């Protein structure tokens, strides 16, 4: 075993006191082992930083997933509990689910209720939705009202683009149906569709082509009253035509269509697929479908450094916030006083959350009873799988049926329809909240013992990226309380704002908002660490005791870039990782100075919020 491997093992497994090696020395070892010195940082920072990436993993996330799964597997396969533990029922439920998952190796059967019986399309679509299958003909989800982030509503819209059948194996009749559905989507797809806010009663009047009573009865298992549900509907034209299109379809072709959709969903959701061991796949699957239970157990039994991490994360975050406030003092965007107040209030209101768990709930009872309606067996994975999906849908929809349907922030956690759990931090506009998943709080991303240059260049950048999502072209529409705001819309029309959107698109991007978050987030993290207007040439750097060759700014860039190391290509909804690194750095004025690059031309990068000094 190499000394680097030994050092890493030591760091991952033992407290520092028992280790011979300093964690920062180990970090440097890792940084050097990824470097490809044959390519120039000035020409391609990503290639320079990651060219010798030799991990057995696809990327850093896969590495974090592997150690998460290992730790959780130990807890979930255990049988003995310590005296006086809380939430023992929940732990038992999760252990049963895990046990059944690990031994199962079958294709998933479809639940009897879903493929048999009375077939009328709204009823069938409602039943599928009840089992977590979304986007069959239409997309239904529980969200909060656009103008009141505390009020639960149902959102209805056309399905996402990619949710169509593979054409090859279909009968002509099915191909015809699929073609018509695609055609319909194409016809009505809009960049920003208009939103209608209606009661259920109004929905029935406005879109009578669809039998909503049937749909919601099948989904919710009760008939909601006409004034009980508030619905927000996009794509009204689509839904009207959809109703007409499906009205007179033959039962057999509908049945076949639904079975194909359901089978493809089951295949995607089944943890059997992929390169990983069954244990690993089961843990990842359970993180996605049972987030509350898995996060609670990880927090309770595995995660050991919450208090140090919280303190440090808050420190980094506070420093980012302070830096952004200083940007606003310069007011590069030329905002009116009212607009400035809006941005400052939003910034002050951002809530940082460590772990996707309710804020205020420390009582084991809450966790113990949260999944009470589920009955998992130790041997029947089929049964557990569909129950877990149903449970998730039921928990999403339960508050809608209560009086007032008001979100309780202290009990809120994210429980949406994902099939693979989030690893990276995320920002929720409606709650003005930045959540860092617990899986992210570990090597190679983070360790509270690491030097601040490592923390600011990775965690600082990630938090900066997420924070800046609150201020890009979509995020800016939401105010400090998470309501959509006229003022935000007005702000977005400001010439300087529009110019910044244009500026970062000088080279094409797969996602404008991701690019803005990258560019602005890197500037923010750099300024938070080095100070606004920093100029490396004016400093005589004292070498770190763990590193004699690379200077602080160079370490900063390399560690930032190495967050994105891995085997290309990997991008979904983002640009490729090499593009992300290189574009973000090319918009950071100090980058070329920090690496003594030959500067041919004056800096032409984009600075949106950052003062031009
Ligand atoms: C890449 O890493 C290996 C060890 O993993 C090392 O022997 C080699 O010198 C490195 N190559 C470069 C170009 O740095
Ligand atoms: C939000 O909008 C709906 C309909 O547009 C309206 O009925 C409701 O009163 C509004 N709520 C708030 C808090 O303004
Ligand atoms: C914004 O949302 C809050 C709840 O988060 C609500 O009480 C308030 O009425 C909304 N404000 C406006 C202007 O609609
Ligand atoms: C559907 O069938 C009914 C009667 O069975 C008929 O009145 C109606 O026009 C048909 N609609 C379409 C869109 O074909
Ligand atoms: C169990 O929960 C109670 C509150 O419900 C709390 O006071 C106690 O510390 C918890 N025990 C453990 C071991 O977490
Ligand atoms: C729980 O599920 C098992 C099948 O896995 C079943 O035998 C048992 O009756 C169920 N219990 C309840 C209370 O639903
Ligand atoms: Zn992002």
From TrEMBL:
Its main location: membrane. It is found in: Cell membrane. It holds the Pfam family Peptidase_M13. Residues 426-602 form the Peptidase M13 C-terminal domain. Residues 1-19 form the signal peptide. Its cofactor is Zn(2+). Coiled coil: none annotated. It is a single-pass type II membrane protein. One of its GO terms (molecular function) is metal ion binding. GO terms for biological process: protein processing. The keyword Protease applies. Residues 189-355 form the Peptidase M13 N-terminal domain. One of its GO terms (cellular component) is plasma membrane. Keywords: Hydrolase, Metal-binding, Metalloprotease, Protease, Signal, Zinc. Belongs to the peptidase M13 family. This is GH21315. It comes from Drosophila grimshawi. The lineage of its organism: Eukaryota, Metazoa, Ecdysozoa, Arthropoda, Hexapoda.
